[in-house]
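Q: Now give one record:
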Amino acid sequence: MAFSSRLLSKSKQVLGIPSILHQGHAIPVRHFAEEAARPALKGDEMLKNIFLEVKKKFETAIDVFRKEKITIDPDDPAAVAQYAKVMKMAREKADLFSEAQRIKYTIQTRTQDIPDARTYLLTLKDIRIKRSLSDELGAEAMMFDALEKVEKELKKPLLRNDKKGMSILMAEFDKINQKLGIKREDLPKYEEQLELKMSKAQLEELKKDALEAMETQKKREEFKDEAMIDTKSLDVRNFL
């Protein structure tokens, strides 16, 4: 029972249900737009509606996890792909954002009032670092170099409302994308790769937590002679 309850707690955390639902942007902006369009509500009533909406999304997502098999094996590409598939199914049914959509939303909300291109790029860098996203191609440094080049030509900082200057910068960015082999039509593929990467990381964390839970239980007198089981044999559905 100790192991079951511990794994239940950890599995919910790593599967991302509470963390996804807890983030303000997990509830689509249209939800709040709809709330604003309705007759004015008292504070308590509005909070109640938001709570019920989050609760509904949580229960919808959990229902998917109760039905779909997840194998805790981050080293098996098939298990990672299945986990990503289940997560996508849960998000779609509960109307939650994907990782790519959350990143896009974060960028939109954090940069909408930024007037200049340099601060915009610095903000993108900050978002990337905080979300533990790597820049293996070195595109970020190239973008700053391109901005430096454009600002030297303009002899002033580049503002985002400077249509001519921004068009020059975008042309430089297009050259970078071409050099790195990045195509706009391949964006869905990049998003899929990101989801698989995140899924692998979450499975690794889930495996780590499961092993820690079993190690803790094994220290108890009544379990000291029991052999630890392989995490691949665990069925998360039994703990939800």
About this structure: Residues 107 and 124 are 7 Å apart (CA to CA). The mean pLDDT is 80. The first helix runs from residue 2 to 14.
